[in-house]
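Internal QA ticket QA-208
Title: Verify multi-chain structure generation after dependency bump
Assignee: T.L.

Test input:
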Amino acid sequence: MKISILAAAVALMAGACSAQAANIEFWYGNTGPVETAIKAQCDAFNAAQTQHKVTCVGQGSYEVSMQKAIAAYRAKNHPVLIQFFDAGTLDLMLSNAVVPVQEILPDVKWDNYIAGARAYYETSGGKLFAQPYNASTLLFYTNKTELEKAGITQTPTTWEEVIDAARKLKAAGHACPFVTDGDTWRVLEQFSARHGLPIASRHNGYDGLDAEYVFNTTFVAKHLQNLVDWRKEGLVKLNADTKAGNYTAAFNAGECAMMEGSSGSYAASTKAFDGKYQLTVNMAPMYKGYERHNTLVGGASIYVMKGHDQAEVDGAKAFLDFLRKPEQQMAFTAATGYVPVTNDVLDAINKSGDAKAAKYATAAIGIESMNQPPTADSRGIRLGFYVQFREIFMEETQKAFGGQQTMQVSLDNAKKRGDELLRRFEQTYKGVKLP
Amino acid sequence: MTSESTLFSNRWLPILLVAPFMLLIVLFFYVPIFQAFYWSFFLEQPFGGGSIFVGLDNFARVLSDREFWQAGWRTIVFMVTASSLAVLIPLILAVAADRKIRLSLPARNVLVWPKGVAGASIGVVFAFVFNPFVGILAPLNKAFPGIWAPGIDGTDAFITLIAAHVWGGIPFNFVILLAGLQSIPRTMHQAAAMDGAGPWRRIFDVQLPLIMPQLFLTLVLEFTESVTSAFALIDTITHGGPGGATTLLVYKIYKDGFSGYDLSGASTQTAILMVFVILLTAAQFLFLGRRINYER
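Actual output:
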């Protein structure tokens, strides 16, 4: 029974945590090259000073990390620092389990963070709730070598051009012109933000817990129907259509020629392409006739959890200060492709003389993409139980890709199920005001 | 009581001996189950700190949720198909093995090994075996592109799950059924044969009726196990997809509780599922178990 797993998780937590003074714990969810970079930062922090010692614990994924944090918090064995991903923002804001970073560190120049990153994580009063850590945004990746083979010399910038290129690739015998996983973050959130479309009423929930989903009535519906049609035509492939079984793996192996992906995949792609193919990264494609707005800051940020003594909070502050240092952020960007979201780091990169180097490629494009003119609906997503909504959206749209129902039916169902989540969230946090 | 007290001179000793096990059961079964029932009447905030008593609202919400019924229906379809196959196939194998008995001792030992393989490992292996590009059905896909696509087609994914479950169930059921067949006295076969019963008739009129207790045992175990143990397979092979086609109730509960932070809804569904499994087992004992003659 699943409940026994919960009990086991709680029991494990109880054994795994230690809480000596000035010994702090930090939980993160990444794996692969990103995990290596996170560990390097932890080691660097421990080497740079002797007062505090941070132990960094990888939990395997954002979701698992959040699950364990909930169990640990209930058992009062939670770490002082924890990385959470974008979708959990409102759940955490109302959880009463975290302290806004700006409250704990009032003297930091938080306006150093670019507006796009702040908007996602700040309260209505303009206080940052979490310190952005591995920030990412949606980018458009192409395998330049394969595109040139099919006679495409100009990297596509609009969806119309992407599909033209895909048709050429297909005509040239390419099995997988464009690949996506149909992930909610990619096809709904980032698409809506940059096309200036709302996902839910009340400005995506920023104005109140009584928001309702509206994406099924916007241009997103047309785009998703297009994806279904293009897939039938053989231009767009999904995870399960690829040999690699996963869109980034398929792109990195050269199986697919174009993909929409997080800037966080950049390091893995360059490594895989090294010596075989040429890689380009650009801002995600737009439909013709739409003005480009900012893409959302994705990835994750670090929260300070309640219930720790002053020594641990001091340790946490020191670690957060350390992570904000420009040289740390630059090294992290160079190693992973995540985007630095503070202006001083961008200046430092520009001054370093390396600004054009491949390792900072995503920084420039990512920032450019997040700095496009914002709208009230491109600030972020402030909707409850949003992690589960992402899964509902995937589940319903997969049915449309599988041909069981039309995309419009899928989106209407997803809206209906999503609204149920929002109403339950509203009821769970009855009388609680948005911070 | 008297026979027990002759075995244990100290009356506390037997209690002491079962205490560790009882403690585990209480800690990992009764306490969580109680918690689940308790939470099913509340709206629980994920991080604690506040819960609202909502009476039967959670039950009303779950029972009026289309997704719940769909997952429930899938659970029943899986239970019926997967567990009947998981008994039928070992039965055929056991009847076959019973006829040529010389290798049965090593066979029994070798065949039971897969029982030791964890569900998650079976899942990982079957995900590869049924992979549309590199698995055993890849040639079929080459000939008819798109005919086998468990990542897109819900039915294909469901078939993969059933195959993996049946494979995992074969060894144990095989051993139980073979043991039942072996315990049928030779003389019965000989008497039936002398009366002119051919091999098929002997299977249906002598062997099957006489191994009813074993068949009943395997069926009851399979039915209850298929409801809960499908979790590991789903989590490794399909993750409930595509499009929710393999989201059985156990997986839905996990998803709702752990990635949806809907502790109340997950608890409510746990309570409902548990009552269902208890009723199902009780029904089996009431309607099937009574008809079985355990005497030989």
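Spot checks passed. Residues 1-5 of chain B have pLDDT under 50 and may be disordered.
Status: verified.
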